[in-house]
Specification:
single chain; alpha+beta; four-stranded antiparallel beta sheet; 36% helix; 29% strand
């Protein structure tokens, strides 16, 4: 048809053929455009269903957060922020769709004029400036990339790792390989550049569907994590339930061990013990009532919870035994029945059967320490100290007792050469490098002494006063004139105690002798 000189009739036939081919191509294009439009409608309908489902899931979470704020309050707050983020992002995409389709209004049935939306000008002009991405195109990409990061910041560990990977894959914007171009294309080019408008609108609607699916998956994942945690054996702990809470000497101790769960985030609506309402705490409740007469008594009541608008009651059943009131205190020195002046002597002071907060102890130099019934007694002058104890019984009455302790000074340490006390034997060279120290043998407290001064005496020579804990040059000179068998005396050993802030001046350490070999 293209070669040789054609007659007017042949030219007309060729023109009609070209028109026919174009019409076929146009009809094919219209079918494809209509298919995109129908698909867009289906996705929009599905999105509407997703909105309803997500709203229903959130209302369930909202009710659970109202029933159990400690258990679900934090998740509800996170989901609220995530839903706000998803709505803002979806509304942003809806704004783009509105902008690029303003020349193509929907008909009364809500359909776009699909067959007219075969050009790409609207989206190309929005996302591109020439061949480069426009400010709007860059914003579109940044919104997608920032969406996952914001979800992570809000959800944190509440979003499971496997779920997070699915979301990252869903909103991935890395370059895509194009077989037609035989090269990697930027994600925006591959998906939105030079595509018919109706195809682009459908892709944007699908992106909104991905947002709604993400919102749904996150909420479902949070509920699923609660179910997994509740079903896990790590949520259980063995609980020892004795037949009664007090047993007499020689009596068989009976009871049972059961598996129970303790959830610190589960708070009861109300708790009733022996007919009296008591305050509910996280996963537990504290009760208090009169013990009654000596003997065994029952504890009854119920834990009451709100669940889906209904009250669920769990029965309480237990017992306890009342024993006679204590009449004397238990006072003991943790080290021995003596306290040492200048030291914080640890003591345990308690009253049998009475809690520590109801016990008061007093004595000169007595102060509370860390732990129930723990005290430190730092006595001053005198030879004795009296510790007085008062306790308040459950009925409000007070009982008291006291005990007297002897006060002793810290004994004098013994001088030592190289850590050994008594008479030492060895070469002059050993003494020249040995440290003069002081040790307190067979003492209950671990005290460390540091020698600050001592006197050094070689037979037939004047004594030398040394500062510190090692012999000086003057001592070495005197030692050089000593003979085999001479006994070197180290005496007037002054020390200080290391590691305590107490103002303790120790006695002089006992002398130590060193015989030259």
């Amino acid at each position: 048809m293209a070669g040789g000189k054609l007659t007017p009739r042949q030219k007309m036939i060729n023109l009609m053929y070209l028109v026919f081919i174009a019409m076929l191509a146009l009809n094919m294009s219209k079918e494809v455009l209509s298919a995109f439009g129908i698909l867009n409608n289906k996705i929009e309908s599905s999105n509407s269903i997703s909105d309803t489902r997500n709203e229903s899931s959130f209302l369930q979470l909202q009710q659970k957060a109202k029933d159990q704020p400690l258990q679900y309050g934090d998740k509800k707050a996170k989901v609220e922020k995530i839903r706000t983020l998803c709505k803002e992002y979806s509304d942003y995409i809806e704004g783009i769709k509105t902008e690029v389709t303003k020349k193509f209004p929907k008909d009364k049935e809500g359909n776009y004029p699909y067959e007219q939306m075969d050009k790409s000008d609207e989206i190309d002009n929005l996302f591109y400036k020439g061949d480069k991405e426009s400010a709007q195109g860059k914003e579109f990409l940044e919104r997608i990339r920032g969406f996952v990061g914001k979800l992570k910041a809000i959800g944190g560990s509440s979003i499971a790792e496997v779920e997070l990977k699915k979301i990252e894959k869903r909103f991935e914007t890395k370059d895509v390989y194009s077989e037609k171009a035989e090269a990697n294309l930027p994600w925006l080019d591959y998906n939105y550049h030079h595509f018919p408008l109706i195809a682009t609108v459908t892709k944007l609607t699908q992106l909104q569907a991905d947002i709604k699916t993400t919102e749904s998956d996150i909420m479902e994942g949070m509920f699923k994590s609660d179910l997994v945690a509740a079903a896990s054996l790590t949520a259980y702990q063995p609980i020892v339930v004795p037949e009664k809470t007090a047993f007499f000497q020689g009596e068989a101790v009976k009871g049972k061990i059961i598996l129970g769960k303790f959830d610190p985030n589960l708070v009861a609506k109300s708790v009733v013990v022996n007919g009296v309402s008591v305050p509910a705490k996280a996963g537990q409740a504290d009760f208090s009532f009169g013990a009654g007469a000596v003997g065994e008594h029952e504890i009854t009541g119920s834990f009451n919870f709100d669940e889906n608008g209904k009250v669920v009651s769990l029965p309480i059943k237990g017992n306890y035994v009342v024993v006679p009131q204590p009449k004397s205190a238990n006072i003991s020195a943790d080290k021995m029945n003596v306290v040492y002046r200048g030291l914080p002597n640890p003591m345990t002071i308690s009253f049998a059967g009475i809690s520590d907060d109801k016990v008061t102890a007093s004595a000169p130099g007595l102060a509370r320490a860390t732990g129930n019934g723990k005290y430190n007694l730092n006595p001053g002058s005198g030879t004795e100290v009296k510790v007085s104890v008062t306790a308040k019984l459950p009925d409000g009455k007070a009982v008291s007792d006291n005990k007297i302790f002897r006060i002793k000074n810290i004994p004098a340490p013994a001088g030592a050469i190289g850590g050994s006390v008594g008479i030492q034997k060895g070469a002059k060279s050993r003494l020249e490098v040995s440290q003069v120290s002081a040790v307190l043998q067979d003492f209950l407290y671990d005290l460390t002494f540091q020698v600050t001064r001592f006197s050094f005496k070689v037979p037939g020579q004047a004594a030398i006063i040394v500062s510190g804990d090692r012999v000086n040059a003057q001592c070495k000179a005197a030692l050089a004139r000593a003979s085999k068998g001479d006994q070197i005396s180290i005496f007037d050993i002054k020390t200080k105690i290391v590691g305590t802030t107490a103002a303790i001046v120790p006695k002089d350490a006992a002398p130590v002798l060193y015989e030259i070999q």
